[in-house]
Design brief:
30 strands, alpha+beta, nine-stranded antiparallel β-sheet, Alpha-Beta Plaits, 6 domains, 1053 residues, Multidrug efflux transporter AcrB transmembrane fold, 36 helices
Length: 1053
């Protein structure tokens, strides 16, 4: 097949060049229009079920909603974990499915199970599934600061400044629909301002005075502001539509409706209740730089093009800004994921460009020929173009990992072409010096095929060593699989180019060059002299050198166990996220004030450009945060101080304030949440049944962990007691007054929590009509005096219920059908593996009650699992490499000699990691995988040439064979190794630059390994072959001679 490809290409030279040009144009066009993102799709299929439950306490939410939903969702095909949070008036259940499962099928399964569970849920609750979104879904945060009257331009009247209610109304009914209309937007969640409601607040004393019951008010209000259809009527041969209209937007109209009749006069609603537009009950608020604001979170759909969507969002914001109401400052983009994407992609693209320049410089330094350099370099753009087209067919995006795979492969893309060009030029010169009459096209064909077998086998081995990446589970598999695909596809593309375009260009450009007398460059000549002397010197010390190499490899292998470990390198996103946790039970007003104060403190940090805060939970948010929790997004400007120094400065300013806090980055936080369910690197989960016991164990554990060095942001999940007013019904007294418990609960719920009894519609704006007692009448004393309608008349609540203040949990967390509480922390300044070992020792020392247990989760767990998988699969890859080499050489000895380059490469990798202070992470292990394939390439090329010299040129197996073969292969071996190594140098520097963080460890491992394997291979491979390869070579040559006698033809090795 390869003979046919090379021959056909040489016979159709112009068509091959034209197709190559078309491929380049197509690749450029495809790359320009391809979707761009920061990382591959990291979404673990998760379906969120949210249930609003009015003012239910967490205990009731757990028992009546969360537990029935958990029970219904458990047992679904592919489900791996069920988690729930039961908060005040809110249940959120997370159903996590296996990686790779179809999200829409999962949602269908969840919808079916919700339908089955409805009969066990309270009648007035409605579970809904959250929208389809991405873990990287928060594409933009927009802050709309509210200007106070004194900030309003003096030319404008004071009344023109927007109230928080007007501001929120504009966001809800103008901005939000406009942003949701943009293709690719999944959800738009505003928080802050005040939601307008038309509130009816009954006065219990006036109700008693007029003899009006709450049910009368509710019944009268429920039909307010509704339109209806009255059917049709035929009049005068025409059909008329009857429209019944009672809709109004005026509070005065509602206040004037009749709710009863007394002494021949109507009793209006205004006589027994206050009616007007008021702010709805707030469970969250927002701020910007210490002032009030509305913060809008824009979520994108999975697979949406982030950069294109960001551009569309900015165009919509610019359009809206032109008609922004007076009272709004210009919208501030608080977080823009596109900034990180563009910085990361730009850095990796620059690394690709600089790597290509390094390749060109090294090739010219070795070849000293513009033509040979040009032919070799053509493989880079053509391979990248083919890779871009294949990625389009595979529906892959351009991201840091795919570009990283290309950046790692950039030096190897010219390897096949270099070997081809070097051999073709050598054979052309040899034919000219021998006076051969063979045609140029035939010499080019034979020369290309002569090295083809070695190239094919080397490429097959590179592909084999990457197979573990495709079997990696979890987030690490999702992250590194595109890197492997990019690497393999580009290498295969370069091999195809070397069989088609490279021979054709060699045919046109090299014959004229072969006329010139070949003279090695000064550098190559010096290297050849050095190589000859080194081999001659080493021959008497073969055993000692073998022993020294074995000792070096052993030390390097043992030292790996002492390297610091981590899951992934820390990202540099340019934005921090500060989470504040005040004492549960803290009011929203107090949390707001504390959050504003922290904003002002953060603005004093030199690198902080802007800050925005979200306190509590937005109305549409999937996160069950209480009003005591604030999340502050901190936009950082680049500076001379490192990320670690800035974080230390922020922490020092916040120590001593009355809250717990953790600091992270947006994407890193979401990855942590994906791994363990909390936004921290380390999570210790305490499972049990009793909340008090869980709380006590968690606090005890936190105290024990304070002595662990390297732990930061150590906190206990805020599941604690908060003040409650409990109304406990007396069943005997209820029976005496003829009132059922259900009727009593419904009446009390309407008065205390509020009943949504109608809706006011004004154009496309809708406002709820809410029946609710005023806050001034909702204390324990006031509630006891509220009158309830019974069969024996209107009697106060206190006559059949006890009302008292008590405590209850603020929220209840559950996982896999059990209650759980979490102690969480981050690791900094110390090897995470050592930190985890200390944590495990602390956990072992804990004495737990029967039925309680601990679970340690987080990044380290993913790192340990990935290490086990990579180790296991690497053994499989090495076995397959051996099988491939054995099938080629039919010799265990020769296969093992070639594979000896792999441990030799380990030595340089370990040294490089130590110098660069690189941790042993999944990224560095991927570097080892890549290195295993690259390092065997040189051995294949060198051993194959030794054998070819014996087979075709009559060389005897002795020292002269080793010296000649080593010198003739020195240039291509050094060239391919140097271009592969030095093409990575752009990734070795500025390791904390966005996009380079995760590729830097890979580059360090490969660079160091290639340097050591190339140097040691130059010496040890000839010695190993001379010592152990004679019998295998003679057997192989004899076998081939037998085959040649039968077929009079044999393919060169």
């Amino acid at each position: 097949m390869f003979n046919w490809i090379v021959t056909t290409s040489l016979n159709n030279r112009l068509m091959v060049l034209a197709l190559g040009l078309l491929l380049m144009i197509g690749g450029i066009w495809t790359s320009w229009h391809a979707p761009v993102d920061v990382f591959p799709d990291l979404n673990k299929p998760t379906v969120t079920v949210m249930t609003e439950a009015g003012g239910m306490a967490p205990q009731e939410v757990e028992q009546l909603i969360s537990f029935p939903l958990e029970t219904a969702l458990n047992g679904m095909p592919g489900v791996t974990r069920i988690r729930s949070i039961s908060g005040i008036g809110l249940s959120i259940v997370y159903a996590e499915f296996e990686w790779g499962s179809d999200l829409y099928r999962n949602r269908q399964l969840v919808a079916e199970r919700i339908g089955l569970a409805r009969e066990r849920l309270p009648r007035d609750v409605n579970p809904i599934m959250g929208p389809v979104s991405s873990i990287m879904g928060e594409i933009m945060l927009i802050a709309l600061p509210l200007r106070s009257p004194e900030q309003t331009p003096s030319a404008a009247p004071l009344a023109a400044s927007l109230t928080p209610m007007q501001a929120r109304e504009y966001v809800d009914f103008v901005m939000r629909p406009r942003l949701l209309a943009i293709p690719g937007v999944s959800q738009v969640i505003p928080i802050g301002g005040e939601v307008r409601t038309l509130r009816v607040s009954p006065d219990s004393r006036k109700m008693a005075q007029f003899g009006v019951s709450l049910s009368q008010i509710e019944q009268a209000v429920r039909g307010f502001s509704t339109n209806a259809g009255g059917g049709f009527v035929d009049l005068n041969q025409r059909e008329y539509l009857i429209r019944l209209t009672a809709r109004t937007t005026q509070p005065e109209d509602l206040a004037g409706i009749a709710i009863g009749w007394r002494d021949g006069r109507p009793i209006t609603l205004a006589q027994v209740a206050t009616v007007g537009f008021f702010a709805g009950v707030k469970r969250g608020d927002a701020g910007y730089a210490g002032d009030s604001a509305i913060v809008i979170s824009v979520q994108k759909q999975p697979q949406a093009n982030s950069l294109r969507l960001t551009s569309d969002l900015e165009a919509a914001l610019a359009e809206l800004a032109q008609s922004l109401p007076l009272g709004f400052s210009k919208p501030k983009v608080l977080f823009r994921q596109a900034d990180f994407i563009q910085a990361a992609i730009s850095n990796v693209m620059h690394a690709l460009r600089d790597g290509a320049v390094m390749v060109a410089i090294i090739l010219f330094a070795f070849l000293l020929s513009t033509r040979t350099t040009l032919i070799s370099l053509t493989a880079i753009p053509l391979s990248l173009a083919v890779t871009a087209l294949i990625f389009r067919a595979l529906d892959q995006s351009i991201n840091v990992m795919t570009l990283g795979g290309l950046a790692i492969a950039i030096g190897e893309l010219v390897d096949d072409a270099v070997v081809d060009v070097e051999n073709i030029l050598r054979r052309l010169r040899q034919a000219r010096s021998d006076g051969s009459k063979t045609s140029i096209i035939e010499i080019v064909r034979q020369s290309s095929l002569e090295v083809r077998s070695g190239i094919i086998y080397a490429t097959a081995i590179v592909i084999l060593v990457f197979m573990p990446l495709f079997a990696l589970p979890g987030i690490e598999g999702r992250l590194f699989t595109p890197l492997g695909i990019a690497y393999i596809v580009s290498i295969l593309a370069s091999m195809l180019v070397s069989m088609t375009v490279t021979p054709v260009m060699s045919y046109y450009l090299l014959p004229a060059l072969s006329v010139k007398q070949h003279v090695d460059s000064a550098m190559v000549a010096a290297l050849k002299r050095m190589n000859t002397r080194l081999i001659v010197w080493a021959l008497p010390y073969t055993n000692q050198l073998f022993l020294l190499a074995l000792l070096t490899v052993t030390i390097a292998s043992i030292s790996l166990a002492f390297f610091p470990r981590s899951f992934l390198p820390a990202f540099n996103e340019g934005t921090f996220v500060l989470s504040l946790n005040m004492q549960p039970g803290t009011s929203l007003r107090e949390s707001n004030q504390m959050g504003s104060m922290v904003e002002q403190i953060l603005m004093d940090v030199p690198e902080v450009r802007q800050v925005g805060r979200r306190t509590g939970r937005a109305e549409l948010d999937e996160h069950a945060e209480g009003v005591h929790v604030s999340e502050i997004d901190i936009d950082i400007t680049p500076s001379e101080r490192s990320r670690t120094m800035i974080l230390a400065d922020i922490r020092s300013r916040l120590i001593g304030l009355p809250f717990q806090f953790t600091i992270g980055q947006p994407i890193s936080h979401r990855l942590d949440h994906l791994l363990s369910g909390v936004r921290a690197q380390i999570a210790i989960k305490v499972y049990g049944d009793d909340l008090e016991s869980l709380r006590a164990i968690s606090e005890q554990l936190r105290s024990a962990l304070t002595g662990v060095s390297g732990l930061t942001d150590l906190s206990v999940e805020k599941q604690t007691l908060i003040p409650q007013i409990q109304v406990r019904l007396d069943y005997q007294r209820l029976a005496q007054v003829g009132l059922s418990p259900g009727e009593a609960i419904r009446a009390l719920k309407s008065m205390t929590d509020g009943a949504h009894v109608a809706q006011v519609i004004d154009g496309n704006r809708r406002f709820d009509v809410v029946l609710r007692l005023p806050d001034s009448e909702r204390t324990a004393v006031d509630l006891a005096q509220v009158f309830i309608d019974t069969s024996v008349g209107r009697i106060p609540l206190g006559s059949f219920a006890s009302i008292e203040e008590s405590d209850g949990p603020n929220q209840i967390g559950r996982e896999n059908s059990r209650r759980r509480m979490i102690v969480f922390a981050n690791s900094e300044g110390r090897n995470m593996a050592d930190v985890i070992n200390d944590i495990r020792n602390v956990m072992k020392a804990q004495i737990l009650p029967r039925g309680y247990h601990l679970s340690l989760e987080g990044q380290f767990q993913a790192q340990e699992e990935a290490t086990e998988w990579i180790s296991l699969l690497s053994v499989c890859s090495l076995t397959m490499i051996f099988v491939v080499l054995y099938s080629r050489y039919r010799s265990t000895t020769l296969a093992l000699i070639i594979m000896s380059n792999i441990p030799l490469a380990l030595v340089g990798s370990v040294i490089a990691m130590a110098i660069a202070n690189v941790e042993l992470s999944v990224a560095s292990m991927v570097g080892f995988i890549t290195l295993a394939g690259i390092s065997t390439r040189n051995g294949i090329l060198k051993i194959s040439h030794y054998i070819n010299l014996c087979r075709f040129e009559g060389e005897q197996f002795n020292r002269s064979l080793i010296i000649r073969g080593s010198l003739e292969r020195l240039t291509p071996v050094l060239m391919t190794a140097c271009v592969a190594a030095f093409a990575l140098t752009p990734l070795l520097f500025a390791s904390d630059a966005p996009g380079k963080e995760i590729l830097h460890p890979v580059a360090v491992v490969i660079f160091g390994g290639l340097i050591s394997s190339t140097i040691l291979d130059t010496l040890l491979t000839p010695l190993l072959y001379l010592r152990f390869g004679e019998a295998a070579t003679r057997q192989l040559v004899s076998h081939d001679n037998d085959e040649r006698s039968k077929s009079n033809h044999v393919d060169p090795i």
